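look at this record:
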Amino acid sequence: MSETDAQAFSPVDYFQGEIPRPKLQFRYRAALVVVCLAMVLLPLAYLALVAAVSWGVVWYAIHAFVLLEENRLPFIRYILYLTPVLSGMVIVFFLLKPFFAGTTKNDRSFPISHADHPELFQFLGRLCQLINTPLPSRVDVSCDVNASAGFREGLASVLGNDLVLHLGLPLVAGLNAREFAGLVAHELGHFAQGGGMRASFLVRSVNFWFLRVVYGRDNWDAWLNAASREGDWRFQLIALLARGGVWCSRQILRSLMFTGHAISCYLLRQMEFDADNYAAKVAGSEQAAGMLDQAFSLNVASQLAYQNLNRLWRERKLVDDFCALVVSERERIPAEARERMKASALEAKTGAFSTHPSDAERMDAIKKLAEPGIFVLDAPAACLFRDFPALCRAATKYHYEEENNLRLNEGNYKTVDEAIAVRETETANYNALSVIAPGAGSFWWPIPMDPAYVGAPADAAQTREALGEIANRVAETCEGVTETLKKWLETENRMLHLLAAKSLTEAGVTYESGHFGLADGSVALIEQNLAAKSAESDSLLQELQPHASHYSTRIAAGVQLLYDPAVSSQIPDAGTKQLEALRLVETLAKLQRITPALRELGRRVTQLQTVYQRANEDTKPDRLDRVATLLFRDLGRKVSLAKTELLGVRYPFEHASGPISLIDYCRPDDLGESEQGQNFNLAVAMLQRLPGVYSQSLSRLGALVAEVEWVCGISAKVPTSEPA
């Protein structure tokens, strides 16, 4: 909204009527009483456990001192006396150590002010009057599809009205003004729940304390584990007894933690019902229920938007307005898919540890209220903000740079329209490839490429005829390619699991052989399974080979005809596309050459990850190191080979950094310090990024060939294939 328009607009004028304070339900009152009791009893139970262990240690130290008063078997007597005492002291320390652990405060808020958005604050002020709740001390915005109310300074704000309101801008962008009014009324309704809000906050703080005691691990835990396995047996005995005591005490606290969590979640659900009451009274039952539906759709759209960002980030590009991207993604969800997702959400059930009731329960409760609503502004919610697009762009930049620690410049940004165009182009390219080479596109099953065939054909008419014949042959024989390729990839994946199991066995790591589909973990059985799967893999590749040959021939003919003057004269910007085709073929040929090495590289990475993830305190370090050294050595050779092959090969698409090599494209931001770490991190990055480059390159080349076939009258329709 511009300042000129804002001068004639006041959201306060669109409130018609008052809001009677909703009557608190019995379940809400009962939950509040139970939570207040838990708030007292849970800390007392924790302190009682610490006191009981401490008293037991002191009692034993006093009453068992008689063991030291006799001279018979003094060594045994000292062991019997000191072991329980020292172990008990360790247990008490572990129960109390969260007191000594520092806490980190991660306050990365993006507040907005009354001066910048006066209409919004007028709107909030009137709502607070109607709901009879204090004004928030601060209003924060973010790129989350969420809204919340809370204490600004945590525990320090509990005794006062120092409250913060958090608004997710994608919600503002995707809701109308009445739905947004219901959303804000819901959150301000939490402000009105003074006792419930404070009680739930305190009991959740207690639960978080229990969480740290039960699951928190640090260097002290590592020291205790090491002390129980190594060194003097007397110290091992003390450490083992202490570990057992720590484990038992943590299990007791774990049960208390889940009890407290279940109680607080029940109160939170009742608070949600109560806050929904305010939403219905302000927006109306129909709009409040619609707000829940729209919030769910926007959450799904947010996930799709992040997928789009991941695609863009391959070229170090991001959208400049994430909120607009979310709304755009929501509008692109087909109506049928949206209905399926809505039905799935309504089928969800409320669990004991759910902080919110299910959408179905909330909608039913809202609709039963049959409230007409008192806010009647019929406009997008964004009208309550001054220059909403600028705010979204600023919040988006903050989200990237402050919340995700990215360092960006103007060259990293695309508009939402540009980002959508990139995705549409890539989709069109994939669709074209599915016609030219059905089932192709997997990096692990590369189509043979040779830059030598790029150029005008010696006999254009013969090449055109051959292209038509091979296109017909592909159409006739492509059935079953996708299914065969799927079986082959499953076989390769099974071999990965078997190799991982073999490495675990060789490293002496204990594991459940059934998890790997094995009767036992013997190397002989694993080798037998590997041989069988390797033979199966070779057989499936033999089935796929004729199709790869057909696809290669078809693409080669199409690329050659792209250079034929009779064809290129009918293709827009043919010269650029000829250079693009050459670059793509060269890239694909290089990637094809390193595919076997990358496949082995993937196996080594999987083996190393599995060994280190499953290694436990019983694993013998010497055996583990021996296996890991061999794997790292082989991985280093494969990485060196891949680097040599890719040296000087240019990344074939636009990149924010300008022209870069494939190796630079793969190189992670944090490569590591040791040689082993650098090789491993680069290997992981290659495995993550090169398959996408291959798929994107082959799809783009397929789109160019499809355009040639359309010009030649071979295909019925030309797909969109203009580069974004």
Notes: Residues 233-283 form the longest helix (51 residues). The radius of gyration is 33 Å.
